[in-house]
């Protein structure tokens, strides 16, 4: 995620592919964070605010990673990437709540 811009492959399949990659990566990250060490029913009963914490953590990760890119050669900060990162992390959490398949893998 913090690779210098000159090391990135030049692939242009469709418009906004960069945003799609950010969304997919942060969706997966948010989904996995939601599943690691947390059993859905137990977590909701014992601490319903835990899901808000996952969203905040996902948003912070997106903000920090995007902010750090301005210090990497040939990379730049983009507000829209930061927004898409947060959206992906939030959708990952919602995806886990709807389809908690990872729970069975981690147990």
TrEMBL record:
Domain of life: Bacteria
Listed transmembrane segments: 20-38, 50-73, 79-97
Keyword vocabulary terms for this entry: Membrane, Transmembrane, Transmembrane helix
Record has Transmembrane helix as a keyword: yes
PANTHER family: DOMAIN PROTEIN, PUTATIVE (AFU_ORTHOLOGUE AFUA_3G10980)-RELATED (PTHR28008:SF1)
Pfam families from the UniProt entry: VanZ (PF04892)
Keyword Transmembrane helix listed: yes
Protein name according to UniProt: VanZ family protein
Chain ranges of the VanZ-like domain: 46-97
